């Protein structure tokens, strides 16, 4: 594209820098499917460290950042408010602990009762 970046690409770079500068957290950019993606489409996502449960943050409609809190609800933050995004993600996702597998599933795998 002749060296011209899309505004959304700049926003991803700015968001990575905000997480690193404000909290020292390293995020990566990956391709993910979000609820607003249609069919086989995937979109760019910021993916956080395991400390935050590998949270995926997407840019919905180019207007707002969105991510899921620990209970699975989608949260939205205005695109240009990176300071609020950083604090909200930390508040909602810090110390993430994945759910433990159920004992019944373990018994089924082992074939015991």
Give your account of this protein's structure.
- With 113 residues, this protein is an alpha+beta fold.
- Helix content is 33%, strand content 22%.
- It contains 3 helices and 5 strands.
- Strands 1-2-3-4-5 form a 5-stranded antiparallel β-sheet, with helices on one face.
- Strand 4 and strand 5 (74-78) form a beta hairpin.
- It is globular.
- The N and C termini lie far apart (61 Å).
- 16% of the residues are buried.
What is the helix tally? 3
Helix/strand/pairing category: alpha+beta
Shape: globular
Low-confidence stretches: 1-5
- SSE string: HEEEEEHH
Strand arrangement, largest sheet?
1-2-3-4-5
Cα Rg:
17 Å
* Biggest sheet architecture: 5 strands, antiparallel
Strands, helices and their partners?
Layout: H1 7-23, E1 28-32, E2 43-47, E3 56-60, E4 64-68, E5 74-78, H2 82-93, H3 103-110
Antiparallel strand pairs: 1-2, 2-3, 3-4, 4-5
Task: Summarize this entry quickly.
This protein is an alpha+beta fold and 113 residues long.
Summarize this structure as a short list of keywords or feature phrases.
single chain; 113 residues; 22% strand; five-stranded antiparallel β-sheet; alpha+beta; disordered N terminus
